[in-house]
Design a protein that fits this description.
- The structure is a single chain.
- It is globular and about 85 Å long.
- The chain starts with a strand and ends in a 20-residue tail after the last strand.
- Strands 22, 23, 27, 28, 29, 30, 33, 34, 35 and 36 form a ten-stranded mixed sheet that branches.
- 21% of the residues lie in helices and 28% in strands.
- It is of the alpha+beta class and 872 residues long.
- The structure holds alpha-L-rhamnopyranose.
- Alpha-L-rhamnopyranose binds next to helix 3.
- Its EC number is 3.2.1.40.
Length: 872
């Protein structure tokens, strides 16, 4: 027996493989060992009674399930053991994991969709229930459940799970996710009751910035199928059907995602989801049709409460209002320990991300009211947390609280998709470390079931451009693959209805009166996101699944570019959105015209599809050709023979360099000109959504690392650290969402939680710390830290598909460089030291290196250099 242990097997990208939709889920495992250089040479998988026998293979990630496929509801235990190069004996078996299929065919569903009868008022919340008797003991029970709206289910008075805001938001016309719950322990022989708490959610509530609600329908509904297996082999099935009853007179008076929730405890209905409750006054539900072919099992984790934060301070504002500060801009809601008080006492909580001159700054929320209200019943203290809403906030204003509000009366409950955290970064500059922390919080707040632009105002849409730039960072920080796979499936489904045009946001709603057109940098999400996920996870299956979407996007994009790839139709495009030169009321007015950006993106995306074709063994020649034509067009139109780009902008140079659009002879000059441009911009950000994520990489690769560091460490506005110096705890939509004088930016869109500009974290991970995949899925890793002026140490860790990789370096006395890396089992690594020496190979295990480098020096300012900050 060797000193090798194998963690429990995972199936596809599931955290909990219960109720999965794959019949032959691919399996992965992570080995841990202290044996240096350990590599797997063989494995044996056991799936139920099936065994693979010893398979001579080093593969441990997304290994095919060669056992017979799972049938609906079928559960099989899986385990693996492995052999290393020098191991005569296999490792011990990994701990067993049960992999269980959900309902795989529409025919498995006997449940009917039931709709409560709703009153005329908006945002009503319904309770639905029925009782049933089990005349035999319970051996195993599963609840398969979903809703049109957002729901929580209860059995005999207990919540069936800790999932919140289920079923989340998908393109409901195409796909509605159900979830499988193991409810064996919640049922008893004899009388039982099942109840559902149902609010409008994304399905029927307000969505988007047009003030419209009911995008998918104006009635909510629930679909539940409870299957109880008895020891004698028989099965009782209880489903939503005409026997259910409902009421909208329960304690939750109203709930909306944007508006918040009101509870009136005087309307409490104790025991409503337990047997014996008198529902004679309730109304029979209406049974409706639902296309069971749209029901799908989830591919990623659900939304959960992931953290509870205490209140940092309760203060009184200049105008005398009671304010609560959580110390962190977050997404979720407050849990209130309500005191006793006279029946009818109304406590109101308004939320906001910032204070403006000491008062709650709600203007950025636009039409989102973000207000929760509790009405006391005079029957003692209670704990209350809204159920069907979420807010983006750091501050809250509380009115009507009987007596004095104490910090311990409130807690913030953080909500987001329950992704596994996989990446960390820290460095010697606390502001940069805080910037990174802000990126993490920005991601947490905006990965609430779908990847959104912002979590607080009346928008919260799955903007494709935002994720396109942020996907590399996201996939380092958390395991996003399961969640994004679902989103990409929706993207493809929406795209099919728009002739290949990828909508600006997914799920798509026709919010604006004009037709969708191919949007540079936004639609490219169809290509970039699957490619990034492939790079980071090695999942070729995902790439194959998105192939049609990727190619349809290129065709639509090329059609807009026109025969000569010159985007002749003119018109509007977001382009380098929110360029720092754009005035607050015209975020599209960038330094770099959108046609220039579009030509560059066309080249890059077409080439990426050609690379994907190679991976998938498909013919990608026409994409490769298109990519080269677009690159040539870019050069002809926008680059001088020497490599000067037509627009004096960081974005134009960064695109040319990073998307590899230049001739070899032009690169060096262009790189120098980019550095000069950044200097001319006073080492400030002078780019927008699409350019900014490329600038530091372009500088690094052009040998202008010090300039990249100047940009990173800039603290004046606009810069990444400006917001940090202003006390930001998330990434902002605008560099100056908060102006230096404490006034909120007058622009129409001023979010304080927008992850897009946090995309720089990917450069922090890959270049500053120096941890990057050198082969898909980190099967080979590149450790190439690049110390620069202003930092003396940096470190990063990443849970690769093979286990933990880590890097940590320190620079002492300006020249003594020390590096520590951990290479996960079963991988190889190349280590590139910053002294210019040849790359070294490193096998699994921990390695230390030292070298002497030239002291990193700040960029020399020419004598006549004009620093706008010095003259401010
Ligand atoms: C804004 C969104 C988003 C951006 C679009 C173009 O409304 O907040 O970040 O992608 O515009």
């Amino acid at each position: 027996m060797s000193d090798v242990t194998v963690a429990p097997v995972t199936a596809e990208h599931h955290r909990e493989p219960l109720g999965i939709g794959e019949t032959t889920p691919r399996l992965s495992w992570v080995t841990s060992t202290d044996l240096p250089g350990w590599r797997q040479v063989a494995y044996e998988l056991e799936i139920g009674t099936w065994s693979s026998g010893r398979v001579d293979s080093a593969d441990s990630v997304l290994v095919p399930w060669d056992a017979p496929p799972l049938a609906s509801r079928e559960r099989r235990t899986v385990r693996v053991r492995v052999w290393g190069e020098d191991d005569a004996e296999p490792s011990a078996w990994s701990e067993e994991v049960a992999v269980e299929a959900g309902l795989l065919s529409p025919a498995d569903w006997s449940a009917r969709l039931v709709r409560p009868v709703l009153p005329a008022r908006e945002e009503a919340v319904a309770l639905l229930r029925r009782e049933f008797v089990l005349d035999r003991p319970v051996a195993r029970a599963r609840l398969y459940a979903t809703a049109q709206g957002v729901y929580e289910a209860e059995l005999n008075g207990a919540a069936v799970s800790d999932v919140v805001l289920a079923p989340g938001w998908t393109s409901y016309r195409h796909r509605l996710r159900y979830r499988t719950h193991d409810v064996t322990g919640l049922l008893t022989e004899g009388p039982n009751a099942i109840g559902v708490h149902l609010a409008e959610g994304w399905f029927a509530g307000y969505l988007g910035f047009t003030g419209k609600r009911g995008w998918y329908g104006d009635r909510t509904g629930a679909l539940l199928q409870l299957e109880v297996d008895h020891p004698d082999g028989s099965r009782t099935v209880v489903t939503t059907d005409g026997a259910w009853r409902s009421t909208t007179d329960g304690p939750t008076v109203r709930s909306g995602l944007y508006s918040g929730e009101t509870v009136d405890f005087r309307r409490d209905l104790p025991g409503w989801s337990a047997p014996g409750f008198d529902d004679a006054a309730w109304t029979p539900v209406e049974v409706a049709d639902l296309d069971a072919a749209t029901l799908v099992a989830p591919t990623g984790p659900p939304v959960r409460r992931t953290q509870v934060l205490p209140v940092r301070a309760v203060t009184t504002s200049p105008s005398g209002r009671v304010l609560v500060d959580l110390g962190q801009n977050l997404v979720g809601r407050l849990r209130l320990s309500l005191p006793d008080g006279p029946a009818g006492t109304e406590i109101t909580v308004r939320h906001a991300e910032v204070l403006e001159h000491g008062e709650l700054g709600t203007r950025p929320l636009k039409a989102a009211r973000a207000t929760d209200v509790a009405v006391l019943d005079g029957r003692g203290p209670r704990t209350w947390e809204p159920r069907s809403t979420f807010h983006g906030f750091r501050y809250a204003e509380v009115t009507g609280w009987p007596g004095e509000l104490r910090p311990e009366d409130l807690q913030a409950v953080v909500l987001h998709t329950d992704m596994r955290r996989t990446g960390t970064f820290t460095c010697s500059d606390p502001d940069v470390s805080r910037l990174h922390e802000n990126v993490v919080w920005g991601m947490r707040g905006n990965f609430l079931d779908i990847p959104t632009d912002c979590p607080q105002r009346d928008e919260r849409l799955g903007w494709t451009g935002d994720l396109q730039v942020f996907a590399p960072t996201a996939s380092f920080l958390h395991d996003t693959t399961g969640m994004l796979r679902s989103w990409l499936t929706d993207l493809a489904a929406e795209q099919r209805e728009l002739d290949g045009v990828v909508p600006m946001y997914v799920p798509f709603l026709p919010l604006l009166p004009f037709p969708q057109q191919p949007e540079t940098g936004w639609g490219d999400a169809a290509v970039v996101v699957p490619w990034v996920l492939y790079q980071r996870t090695g999942d070729t299956g995902l790439l194959a699944a998105q192939w049609d979407s990727m190619t349809a996007w290129i065709d639509a994009f090329a059609a807009r570019a026109g025969e000569h790839l010159d985007f002749p139709g003119g018109g509007f495009s977001f382009g380098d959105w929110l360029d720092t030169a754009a005035p607050p009321d015209n975020p599209a007015a960038a330094r770099t015209p959108w046609q220039c950006v579009a030509t560059a993106y066309l080249a890059r995306s077409a080439r990426t599809v050609a690379q994907a074709a190679e991976v998938l063994g498909r013919d990608g020649a026409r994409f490769a050709q298109l990519g080269e034509r677009a690159a040539a067009r870019f050069r002809a139109e926008y680059v001088s023979p020497n490599g000067r780009v037509a627009f004096p902008s960081q974005t134009a140079y960064a695109l040319a360099l990073e998307f590899d659009l230049l001739e070899p002879g032009q690169r060096e000059h262009a790189g120098r000109l980019l550095a000069q441009q950044v200097l001319a911009d006073g080492f400030h950000i002078a780019s927008g959504f699409l350019g900014t994520p490329l600038v530091t990489d372009a500088l690094t690769n052009a040998g202008e690392l010090a300039t990249a560091y100047e940009l990173l460490l800039q603290r004046g506005n606009p810069s990444w650290l400006y917001a940090v110096t202003m006390g930001a705890t998330t990434i902002w939509e605008r560099w100056d969402s908060m102006l230096p004088d404490g006034t909120i930016n007058p622009g129409e869109m001023t979010s304080f939680n927008h992850y897009a500009f946090g995309a720089v974290a990917d450069w922090l991970h890959r270049t500053v710390a120096g941890l990057a995949p050198a082969a898909p899925g980190y099967r080979r890793i590149r450790f190439a830290p690049r110390p620069g002026p202003g930092l003396t140490s940096a470190a990063a860790t990443h849970e690769t598909p093979y286990g933990t990789a880590s890097v940590s370096w320190a620079l002492t006395g300006g020249t003594a460089f020390a590096l520590d890396v951990v290479v996960p089992p079963n991988t190889t690594a190349e280590v590139v030291l910053p002294d210019g020496s040849a790359p070294r190979e490193a096998g699994p295990g921990r390695h230390a290196f030292t070298c002497t480098i030239e002291e990193p020096r700040p960029v020399e300012r020419p004598a006549l250099f004009f620093d706008p900050d010095a003259h401010a």
